[in-house]
Amino acid sequence: MLRIILTIIFVILCIAMTVIVLMQEGKSAGLGAISGAAESYWGKNKGRSMEGNLEKFTRISAILIFVLALVLNLKVL
C-alpha cells in the first residue's frame, strides 16, 4: 500500500517538475545584455522574483524525485 502511495506522489512530482521547467525563461541574455538591462532591479533581486522561485522549486522537486526514486527502488517496500 505504501508503494502505491509513493508511486502516485512520484508521478505527481514528475508532472509538477515538467510544468515548472516549462514555465521558466531561457538563459540567453538576448538584446537586454547590450543595453545593460541584465543588471536591473529584477536581475539583482532574482531570488525574490518569480523566476527565482521557479528555480528554487525546480531544485527542491528534483531532490524529492531523486529521493523517491531511490526509495521506490528498494526491495523492502
Q: What is the number of helices?
A: 4
- What assembly state would you assign to the polypeptide chains in this entry? single chain
The H-and-E topology, N to C, reads as HHHH
Q: Unreliable segments (pLDDT under 50, ≥5 consecutive)?
A: none
Residue-averaged pLDDT, rounded?
81
Q: Please give the alpha-carbon distance between the first and last residues.
A: 9 Å
Number of strands: 0
Structural class: mainly alpha
For the sheet with most strands, the description reads:
none
β-sheet strand percentage: under 5%
Query: Based on CA inertia axes, which overall geometry fits?
Result: elongated
Question: What proportion of the residues is helical, as a percent range?
Answer: over 70%
How many whole angstroms does the radius of gyration measure? 18 Å
Protein name: Protein-export membrane protein SecG
GO molecular function, one term: protein-transporting ATPase activity
Pfam family, one: SecG
InterPro entries: SecG
Would you give an account of this structure?
This protein is mostly helical and 77 residues long. The chain is built from four helices and no strands. The relative contact order is 0.18. The model has no long low-confidence stretch (mean pLDDT 81).
In short:
This protein is mostly helical.
Topology:
Layout: H1 2-23, H2 32-35, H3 41-44, H4 50-73
Helix pairs in contact: 1-4
Transmembrane segments: 57-74
GO molecular function: protein-transporting ATPase activity
Protein name: Protein-export membrane protein SecG
